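Form 12-C: Joint structure prediction
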Amino acid sequence: MLISQEIVLPCDLRLPNRLVKAAMAESMAPAPAHDPNDKMLVAYKEWAKGGWGMLLTGNVQVSEQYLGGPMDVLSSSSSGDVEKIWKGWASTCQENGTPTVVQLNHPGRQSPLGAGQRGFFTKNLAPSAVKLNFGSSLLAGVASSLLFGTPKAMTEDDISLVIDQFVAGAKLSFQAGFKGVELHGAHGYLLAQFLSPKTNQRTDGFGGSPAKRAEIVLRIIRRVRQATSKEFCIGIKLNSVDASSSDSLADTIEQISLIVEAGIDFLEISGGTYEDPKMAQQNETSSITAPTKEKQSTLQRESFFLSFAQMIRVHFPKVVLIVSGGFRTRIGMEAALQSGGCDMIGLARPAAVLPRLPREIILNESIKDVDATVSLKPVILPKFYSYLHWLLPVKIMGGGYGSMYYAGQIQRMGDGLKPVDARL
Ligand SMILES: Cc1cc2nc3c(=O)[nH]c(=O)nc-3n(C[C@H](O)[C@H](O)[C@H](O)COP(=O)(O)O)c2cc1C
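Section 2 - Result
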């Protein structure tokens, strides 16, 4: 099986198998410090026992002013012993030898009201002053204005500061003993906002062409490499481009080419934004059963973004690709790897329900292929919320509600409880 084979990243980091616990914001680090606390460590202790090839942490915010959620971890924490706390976190994650990579993020225009130490009238930051669009209704506009507001187009000084903040986050991760960082360039957060012409309408050195829109990312990658070491892993999570996306495939390929040249160790493919949360879609409603190897269409249904990854593979045969989103069966995972479309499989919601999924099921040879599945019961939006569809589209509320449900499972782990076994 390819799933159980080790892989060595360009930075020489050796991963024992192909299963990655994908990033999930733990929502367990309260203000004011936003440090990874003991409860979080209890949860990571569980994943450390899971037999994963690599752990990705939940997104760690680089700016104390702008968080993705009020309980996010912060890499610029003001607590005095932050390095000691982070060393404890890194060693807990890696106590059984699982390499762990910290995901670094800046939410840009997707920082909701109340998430971050900023005044009530301080605007979110973004490449251009383009507001989130939750739909055409008047109330959707009001919801977007109240929750996120119209962002401020960043000055060059703002951009320099954000680059410094990413580099500081990487340095802290490096010094703490983590094996690398992943830049969050997906899901409509700040780096994704820069990459996309829909949200980046600048005409200076950071916008106006695919290459200039990628400039902030390239600078971060180069500076992180300088500030750490050639053995420190630098990955990036990017969104796929599909028919419903406003980004052009050719532009995205040009940007990936520059990012690869700047020196990355892996590229994780995902998709979706707050406006269209494709990453939070649920394939379980149709009940995933183990596909046979011949059934390519079933495989495409299981994995949300594999076809895009397969296309990227054609252009970048040597880049280590992780695809995250929708994988629920060993046969589906193995077929995706065998197809050559990716090198590693990212799993998020299944990892919140079964923290030891690789060891107990996917890599457990005593479980037959057809039984090695983790179909999860769909998380149903309570009826009350669906009455609010005139305020926010149901898919947006459903995505948020589903994330809250799974964050709740991580919090159960932090309390020393088992997550609710929500398998079908
Ligand atoms: C509770 C929760 C929190 C998440 N937080 C993050 C995050 O911090 N960073 C990120 O890149 N993706 C985040 N995601 C998205 C997942 O990494 C993944 O892309 C998505 O859930 C699809 O994978 P899955 O079908 O295996 O769950 C989160 C998902 C969930 C359920």
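Section 3 - Comments
The mean pLDDT is 92. Residues 198 and 246 are 7 Å apart (CA to CA).
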